[in-house]
Design goal:
Elements: H1 8-17, H2 21-39, E1 50-55, H3 57-68, E2 78-83, E3 101-106, E4 123-127, H4 134-148, H5 163-167, H6 172-180, H7 187-194, H8 212-222, H9 230-236, H10 246-256
Parallel strand pairs: 1-2, 2-3, 3-4
Helix pairs in contact: 2-3, 4-6, 8-10
């Protein structure tokens, strides 16, 4: 999660970042991510799943990080949810397909509309409180009040002299209320409902790590001593040839002995 603006200093950073600052932020986040990945036992590009989120200043940085993250995880395993994303220099990326980047925009929020001379990449989903049905608005109001202790209308509006009122349409609370309210059809809801964790190649016994026990279980399967289900068989295809054989057990052993660096 990459946070948004919290201070005057952050606001100055926002202004400076729209051209190349977000690229720098994305690169910095990528380096931190690579360091973290290297600190995890058995973590590889092949078995890494990324969920990247950010709000406002952090949303643009999250989008850039997602574009650069193929050094850490495959695009199909990288899922980015950017909230209230301001425009930024897309570095020519607009010609590429980034269906894995989901951007949520409140149409009453001015921040995602500026600066006018830049763009953003990904799939944008827009909301507006005024266009919600009565049922959707009731769900929105319930969630918003849970977070803020008052309704959206009671929290002021963009013309208010109250600071919170001025920021109301941009606040994370507002976006969370859109996405968490009843009747939401957001990509987050649909993704969570259908998500099935990817099998870790080499993790035959499904305990979350690759060890000599996995090679042993595979050998037992090949000797008809134990049975493996479809998910285990998919994980057992350590050489990536589409089948399961003694060669896969050998690949797992080579991986554990650091003779090879990846499986599948």
């Amino acid at each position: 999660m990459i946070r948004g603006t919290r201070s005057v200093v952050d606001a100055v950073t926002d202004i400076k970042s729209v051209r190349d600052g977000f690229l720098d932020a994305g690169k910095n986040c990528l380096e931190s991510l690579k360091e973290y990945q290297s600190s995890l036992k058995d973590a590889t590009k092949e078995n890494t799943i990324l969920f990247i989120t950010g709000h406002s200043l952090g949303a643009s940085a999250a989008c850039v990080l997602s574009c650069l993250a193929d050094e850490v995880a495959y695009k199909s395993a990288t899922h980015t949810y950017a909230i209230a994303t301001p425009n930024y220099d897309t570095m020519g990326l607009e010609s590429k397909d980034y269906q894995n980047i989901h951007m949520y925009t409140n149409l009453d929020d001015i921040v995602p509309k500026v600066p006018l001379y830049f763009k953003k990449v990904g799939v944008e989903k827009s909301y507006s409180y005024d266009t919600l049905s009565s049922e959707e608005r009731a769900g929105f109001d319930r969630v918003y009040k849970y977070f803020r202790g008052k309704t959206y209308s009671e929290d002021g509006d963009i013309n208010s002299t109250d600071l919170i009122g001025r920021l109301r349409d941009h606040m994370g609370f507002t976006y969370m209320s859109f996405m968490l309210s009843e009747k939401s059809d957001s990509e987050i809801d649909n993704y969570i409902a259908s998500y099935e964790p990817l099998s870790l190649i080499g993790d035959v016994n499904g305990d979350g790590v690759i060890s000599i026990a996995d090679a042993t279980d595979l050998q037992k399967y090949l000797a008809n001593i134990v049975n493996l289900d479809d998910e285990q068989l998919a994980a057992a295809d350590a050489d990536g040839d589409g089948g399961v054989s003694i060669a896969d057990a050998t690949q797992i052993q080579k991986y554990l002995a650091n003779i090879i660096t990846s499986l599948g």
